[in-house]
Amino acid sequence: MNKKGVSPLMAWILIIAFALALGAFIMNWATNQVGKFDPSQNAELYCPDVDFSITNFCVKSDYSNVNFDLKNTGRYTIRKLTIARDTFNTELGSCYYLGTPVDPGTEEQFILNLGGVLVGDNKVEDCDHLEIGTEENDLPEIIEILPWIDVDNQSIACTDRKKKINSEFFEKTCSS
Q: Does 43-171 carry CATH code 2.60.40?
């Protein structure tokens, strides 16, 4: 009686060829998936580790500037801030503040000019080229400070980490 079938050597060659083909398919798929990853679309992965505190907040006696210290208590360097303010007579406006990056565990002082006009209608400009402020005799009701971090050369706005400074803080006058 003649038995026909695949020899054990041929079976091993087929198993190895199948395993290599399956491995190549999985590597190709995984490489494509990693290539689609965009850190800026995944703020929820990085922003929980972003935190800061505002201290020494005060307003100059002539209401020209607000001064505050920002301490980075998170794990990422804060690269820039979006400063927004809402006054009693104007709607919310905002701009980017591209000051000194604040490394984790460090503190930086910020001075914001209250003598100009912020951009409204969801337009955001650079604060360095735009005075941050209000019309004369129109004091801020709220100032919001939103941190931005960089991950893999992508800027990420951590919207869930913003801090609000309410009008009661504007009663503290700077000493100098």
A: yes
| Residue 55 burial (10 A CB sphere; 0-12, 13-18, 19+) | exposed
Q: What is the pLDDT of residue 114?
A: 64
Integer CA distances (angstroms), 167 to 30, 40, 71, 113, in order: 51, 32, 21, 16
- List pLDDT tens digits, range 80-108: 888 877 776 666 666 667 677 899 999 98
pLDDT in tens, 112-135: 776 555 555 444 555 554 444 445
Instruction: Choose among 92, 176, 98: nearest CA to 141.
Output: 92
Bridge partners of residue 172, in order along the sequence: none
Q: pTM of the prediction?
A: 0.66
User: C-alpha distances in angstroms, 66 versus 63, 111, 119, 173?
Assistant: 7, 6, 18, 9
